[in-house]
Amino acid sequence: MISTVLEVNFRRLMHNKVELMLTFVVPIAFFSIFALIFGNGIGSGTTPKIKVMTVDEVNSPLSQQVVKNLRESAGLRFMRDEQAGSLDRDTATDLVRNGSLTMAIVIKNQNSKLSADLLADSSDQVASQVVTALVGRSLMLAQADSALRHDATPDADAEPNDDVAEDASVHVVDVIGEGKSNPVISMYAAGIAVMFLLFGATGGGGSFLEERENQTLDRLLSTQLTMDQLLLGKWFYMTCVGVLQIAVMFLWAQLVFDVDLLGHFDGFLMMTVVTASAASAFGLLLATLCKTRGQLNGLSVILVLSMSALGGSMVPRYVMSDRLREYGLWTFNAWALDGYDKVFWRELPVAALAPQLSVLLISGLVFLVTARLLALRWETD
Amino acid sequence: MSFEKAAELKAPLITPGDITVADVASSTSVAPPRRVSSRPAALVIDGLRKSFGKLPALCGVSFELRAGERLALLGPNGAGKTTLIRCLCGRTRPDHGTIDLLGRPIHEPGGRDSLGLVPQEIAVYADLTTRENMRAFGRFHGLRRRELNTRVDWAIAWTGLEDRADDLVGGFSGGMKRRVNLACGVMHSPQVLLLDEPTVGVDPQSREKIFTMLDELNQTGTSILLTTHHLDEAEQRSDRIVILDKGQVVADGTIGELVRRSVGPSRMVKIRVNRPLDRPLSISPESNIVIGSRGDDLLSTRIEDVSEQLPRLLSLIKRHGYEVADVEVQAPSLHHVFLHLTGHELRD
User: Fold this and answer.
1) Minimal Cα distance from A208: which residue of B?
2) For chain B, which terminus, N or C, has the lower number of CB atoms within 10 Å?
């Protein structure tokens, strides 16, 4: 009897392609995505380069030597050429605040010694540690080199001594997060909210297929209701639920984790409405693409989890390699999370949300129009 | 239905001249009266054709549903009934042919406003209450405010679900769901109602209730087109029957007309005798017709005139030395007509 139960279940599994895929293909796909993220990310041989710029306030041969050493570091990507002219501290601060730079390295004189301020975005907790180590090392090497050159008894093999190392001071200046709650909280509030928004939208799309399977769609379309009205009604409903879902999530984040929702309400509202509407259109697109709810479940699990992993809902995108970050821009999540990041973390004006809002709006519109075209086949045989 | 009923069609037919034990008067048959004949057509289907790829589903279907008529659309699986219903409700576009509803082409804007549809599946929202479902479908049909409230109250009373009006439909029995399903198709008081197997899977009590509801609608003037595989329902609850097979109308008429045109008016007679036959009974010396076989105590035959031929048949049996223990007379039914017209091959 037990063997019969075993056989029956194996046979059922073999007949169910969606279940087979969820059992064997999806775990491998996710393993591969995470392996790509962490295998090519920080800590591996192909460390993602941290976007930096230097502000040389000293402009001495020694400070230039430090900058030169930093430019040779494999882990840093300088966003401006050597010849591009000097940058001041305020401009560098703005560039960090608006996300153009991960960090700005300001080299200055402190007590006649070279030191460095790292103007940092503390939401990227990995970058500040890496850059601190690299800058400290460069300062020490430059100062040691200078000391050796001016020393009366040069010793070419001498290591930088402890005194020099102590002098090479590096200070991390958080230019965004001063006085704010942990940046990871708003990031994860947005990340989780967007992921569940996508799941909710595909679930809402599933109700469409359910109506088709139990002939409710036939009945609905035999009334005065048109397919346009049905799709738009569902889209509005799913958008409203999505907005409420994200609002509740952030309200909770404000009450419990001190995320300043009310202080950023305008940007939050714009991002939330546009994100929820695009996610709803995406759910309808998936539903109209599939023939059955089984297909939709399989496809939505794969797509939503993949997009969430690549787009930063599961792990921050700053730990991903440059190539994966580029891939991430093809996901819905990345644009939404970048927008929320600008609202809650960088506190940029709503005009700065234009790229994110535009991409989400256009993609939502494309999803909706495509869903409508796909639904044509359900109107008449 | 069955092999037994099918076999009955092959029983010998005795005409009045075959039994010579007494005088035989000429037989007459009386067709059931038709309730609807002279009313204008509510729905006219003319030359409807539809193919899916190379597979023809409808091959020139034409018939009418008259105003106030109850018409049963029958056919084996794959005959084209569902395609026809989908054409009527606009879900399938026919390749050729026309459909007029109340004198207007059905594909015109608003052409289907007077049409109600009750699908075979329970096509209502299980997670809404009875009242919420009725309100929703009423609004989809264009009802607003006072008219909507009036119709919802009417529908709740009509379905007999007053005490379950605010319960979720998902928790209902099959029969109750069917009633809600039916009500949601008539919220806008359609003049023509399409029902696709409205009683599938319900118990006899619920079936009776559903047909009582349909009769009430019909009495207010609603024309009803019903597809069903319950031939007894079609026979008892419709004024006219259309049989569809292989995408074509193979019969159209009242049950009496269909019987006359297909299997004829003869009656099946089953006579049980007090002991097994010694040999088959010869009906008359002039004919070769015999009934029964050696060892049987049940004789089956068909006769054209019960009132005249049956007494003589019983006398003949008695004259052969047998006592009649039981007699059963069966009128030809829609089952016989249906199998006669559509054959016995499985269509699945």
Assistant:
1) B125
2) C
* Residues with Cβ within 8 Å of residue B342, at least 6 apart in sequence: B75, B76, B79, B243, B245, B250
CB count within 10 Å of CB A223 equals 24
CA-based nearest distance B141→chain A, Å: 5
Render each residue's pLDDT in chain A as its tens digit; 381 residues. Answer: 888 888 888 888 888 777 787 788 878 877 787 777 666 544 444 556 788 888 888 888 888 888 888 888 877 888 765 555 567 888 888 888 877 788 888 888 877 778 888 888 877 777 888 888 888 888 888 777 777 776 645 444 444 444 444 445 788 888 776 666 666 777 788 888 888 899 888 888 888 899 988 889 989 998 999 999 999 999 999 999 999 999 998 998 889 888 888 888 999 999 999 999 999 999 999 999 988 888 888 888 888 888 888 888 887 777 777 777 788 888 888 999 989 988 888 888 889 899 999 999 999 999 999 999 999 888 877
The three state secondary structure string of chain B is CCHHHHHHCCCCEECHHHCCCCCCCCCCCCCCCCCCCCCCEEEEEEEEEEEECCEEEEEEEEEEEECCCEEEEECCCCCCHHHHHHHHCCCCCCCEEEEEECCEECCCCCCCCCEEEECCCCCCCCCCEHHHHHHHHHHHCCCCHHHHHHHHHHHHHHHCCHHHCCCEHHHCCHHHHHHHHHHHCCCCCCCEEEEECCCCCCCHHHHHHHHHHHHHHHHCCCEEEEECCCHHHHHHHCCEEEEEECCEEEEEECHHHHHHHCCCCCEEEEEEECCCCCCCEECCCCCCCEECCCCCCEEEEEECCHHHHHHHHHHHHHHCCCCEEEEEEECCCHHHHHHHHHCCCCCC
Which of B89, B93, B142 lies closest to A222 in CB terms?
A: B89
Contact yes or no for A290/A296 (Cβ under 8 A): yes
Locate the chain A residue with the closest alpha carbon to B136.
A220
Distance of CA A91 to the CA centre of its chain: 24
Q: CA separation (Å) from A372 to A292, A296, A307, B53, B279? A: 17, 17, 23, 24, 76
Distances, alpha carbon B101 to alpha carbons B29, B119, B120, B185, in Å? 36, 19, 22, 17
| Chain B (308-327) residues lying within 8 Å, Cβ to Cβ, of chain A | none
Q: Mapping DSSP to helix (H, G, I), strand (E, B) and coil, where does residue A104 land?
A: strand
Q: Which residues of B touch A225 (CB under 8 A)?
A: 140
Residue A96 sits at the vertex; the CA angle it makes with A95 and A97, to the nearest 5 degrees, is 90
Q: How far is A287 from chain B (nearest CA, A)?
A: 19
As a whole number of angstroms, the distance between CA A87 and CA A74 comes to 22
Asked if A215's CB is within 8 angstroms of B91's CB, the reply is no
Q: Which residues contact A25 (CB under 8 A, 6 or more apart)?
A: A302
Complex ipTM value:
0.77
Asked if B54 reaches chain A (Cβ–Cβ under 8 Å), the answer is: no
C-alpha–C-alpha distance, residues A76 and A88, integer Å: 20
Q: For residue A101, list its beta bridge partners.
A: none
